[in-house]
Amino acid sequence: MVTIAFEKHTLSNGLDVILHEDHTIPVVAVNVWYHVGSKDEEMGRTGFAHLFEHVMFEGSKHHNSSHFEPLQKAGANLNGSTTPDRTNYWEDVPTNYLDLALWLEADRMGFLLDALDQQRLDIQRDVVKNERRQSYENRP
């Protein structure tokens, strides 16, 4: 059985931080999990968890454009996913860009609505609808 050493800290705002250090390569993995997913949606009103997964990449109060651009310029890989139980955002970034990754995560966690407008919502709704068509409705 493999054992991975880690530390768990709970911040004063209730946020749990789980830390595992491995200095083998100069890369850090950041994962932010929200304990909300498709199981929290009402019958007949589904897709909101997936939609907001997309919207969360569209900017926030202090970074009012795509969260992909600055991290990809830094050499990061990033994405998100939605399951019935959770919505996850992850970045693998060079260690010298950890502050940027955490700052962007904190800003969208606290200030998403300051940057959200109808146009951004509509664009991402169309993207999610298209993903659904490609994944489910076009199956033979």
What does the model show?
With 140 residues, the chain is an alpha+beta fold. It has one domain (26-137): Cytochrome Bc1 Complex, Chain A, domain 1, CATH 3.30.830.10. 34% of the residues lie in helices and 21% in strands. The chain has helices spanning 48-55, 68-73, 98-111, 118-137, and strands spanning 7-10, 16-19, 27-34, 77-82, 87-94. The strands form two sheets. The protein has a three-stranded antiparallel β-sheet. Strands 1-2 form a two-stranded antiparallel sheet. Strand 4 and strand 5 form a beta hairpin. The mean pLDDT is 93.
Number of domains in the coordinates?
1
Mean pLDDT: 93
The share of residues in helices is 25-40%
Strand order of the largest sheet: 3-5-4
Q: Write the element-wise H/E pattern from the N-terminal end onward.
A: EEEHHEEHH
As a whole number of angstroms, the C-alpha radius of gyration is 17 Å
Judging by the overall fold, what is the CATH architecture? 2-Layer Sandwich
List segments where confidence is low: pLDDT < 50 over at least 5 consecutive residues: none
Structural class: alpha+beta
